[in-house]
Write a structure and sequence with these properties.
Layout: H1 28-46, H2 50-57, H3 65-87, H4 93-110, H5 125-138, H6 144-163, H7 167-170, H8 175-199, H9 208-249
Length: 251
């Protein structure tokens, strides 16, 4: 058309179809980061390791590298004092050097890591460590609710076992209950989890009947621990009442 600006006349060209960029799969670092977050969440649901609870509650000691360095320093200082005393004929330095050397040697021997804590007829730290390792290896295959129930079981054990190191309290717990507690750690809890995992299908969701059975077994284990705790509480109450009667008899 005459008189029209050629730069603004006519129709616009058709817009080409937008080409979506190919989605790149997440990198290896991102995948590893997600896996670490999942593992951290599983461990949080699973609760603190039973072995750590036993060592804390039963008097287990943990010696760190700093104490080992201190022990070596004391030994070196003691030997240096001994050498100085011999070289200068300062006999008064010899007892000091000997004491320092012996003290440092004692610290070196003690700085050997965690001491195994064994309870009379109950659960050792090594047995608890085996349970912790097993639960950690299967945590990714268990539902979050199951992990929380297992954490409750471990916390109940952590409260009971240090109390049962007391011989007087241990008398209040029948042998059958003591055997049960040890087998709970060694067999009952691991076997319940193993049987559940053996029934899981490879592709579909977990079977509801299997999940219900596992929940029931965990509830039974927890109820049995509560029974032991009730026995201990009743024994303590009886001891308190007996002592009150004893004091009243002194009036």
């Amino acid at each position: 058309m005459a008189g029209q600006n050629p730069w603004v006349s006519g129709s616009l060209p058709k817009r080409g179809r937008r080409v979506e960029p190919n989605a790149k799969p997440p990198g290896k670092a991102a995948t590893q980061a997600v896996q670490k977050l999942l593992r951290a969440n599983q461990r949080n649901l699973l609760g603190r390791p039973l072995r750590a609870a036993l060592l804390e509650g039963a008097g287990g000691k943990r010696w760190h590298g700093g104490k080992l360095v201190l022990a070596a320093t004391v030994v070196s200082g003691g030997l240096a004092v001994l050498v100085a005393g011999l070289a200068s004929h300062g006999l008064w330095l010899l007892p000091i050097g000997a004491c320092l050397t012996l003290a440092g040697g004692y610290l070196v021997v003690k700085a050997g890591g965690d001491k195994p804590v064994a309870m009379p007829g109950m659960v050792s730290a090594e047995e608890a460590a085996e349970l912790d390792a097993f639960l950690d290896s299967i945590a990714a295959r268990l539902p979050p609710e199951v992990l929380e129930r297992i954490a409750q079981l471990k916390e109940e054990l952590a409260r009971l076992l240090p109390l049962l190191r007391d011989e007087q309290r241990l008398v209040a717990v029948p042998m059958e209950e003591r055997f049960f507690i040890r087998q709970l750690v060694a067999r009952y809890l691991p076997d319940a989890c193993r049987h559940y995992l053996d029934l899981l299908p490879t592709t579909d969701a977990p079977d509801e009947a299997a999940r219900a059975s596992l929940d029931e077994q965990l509830a039974l284990l927890f109820a049995r621990l509560e029974k032991v705790r009730a026995l201990l509480q009743a024994d303590q109450q009886e001891r308190l009442s007996n002592h009150a009667a004893f004091l009243r008899g002194k009036q």
